[in-house]
Amino acid sequence: MDLHDLRCFEVIATLGNMSRAAELLGRTQPALTKCIHRLEGEIGGRLFHRRGRGLELSESGAVLLASADRIRREAAEARRHIADLSEGTAGLVRVGAGAPIMGQMLPDVLPEVLARSPGATFQVVLDTGAALAHALRQGELDIWIGPLSSPLDPALSWRMLWEEQSVVVARHGHRLARPGLRLADLVNADWALPASGVDTRRWLEQLLARHGLPAPRVVIETNLAPAQPRLIAATDLLSIVSRRALRSPEVGSLLAPLPLEGVVLTRPYGLHLRKEAYLSPAACKFIDVLVRHVREPTT
């Protein structure tokens, strides 16, 4: 089955209109018609029925559409695997993670993998958990390092590596850094937090709500974690930072946890992989080095 024909079929099926599909793909309508005829010859049945000025999937077309994305992803993975074998290379590693992990772990892991896997290449993607999960499901990533998604996507496998604890922080010498601090004392504070729906912010909002307190007053909404410590240190803003990050001199010299007894967000972190997906030799080596780094931290 020609993968280009399959891609054309997907676009036509999604739009339900041959002329719009031709415009989007930059092809002529007769060329797309030939693509469909070739596919129909292979499967032995009609893929579309005419409906007014548009097209409607037949029963056979619906079956093919449901499998088309998987077929293209598996073919792409097979090509990568064969290329790695024929060229004798360590292969490509496509890894995604949030900003804290990028800044705290990958600088230690990547140099070792590159030294031990000559010829390896990396595509490193920084984004939110939701975006990385989508990219992994679509076959655009090999590995996503992040918190356990709940519920776990049945198409993904999960390997826990560590438990991450996050706490409320402020600059050193903040007026709220005093013994006996309570959640209610934070009501009038201003916050720098990630976008609504991100795990850390949702946890804080739910925690305050359970104690009958209003939602945090967010004056800066940002997912740029590398800039966050300096921003908080230069203001009276509060935020949420992992204890792992606070152990690093770059962050610990600027911020300190507020003495809120029992106010800790604990989340399992680890590797998300697509089930039965191809991993290059370099990707396997990356996982080995990452696991060892987590078990034997350098800081």
From TrEMBL:
Write out the transmembrane intervals.
none
Keyword annotations of the record: DNA-binding, Transcription, Transcription regulation
Q: Where is the HTH lysR-type domain?
A: 1-58
Which Gene Ontology CC terms are recorded? cytosol
Q: Which GO terms describe its molecular function?
A: DNA binding; DNA-binding transcription factor activity
Do you know which Pfam families this protein is assigned to? HTH_1 (PF00126), LysR_substrate (PF03466)
Homology family: Belongs to the LysR transcriptional regulatory family.
Instruction: List the protein's name.
Output: LysR family transcriptional regulator
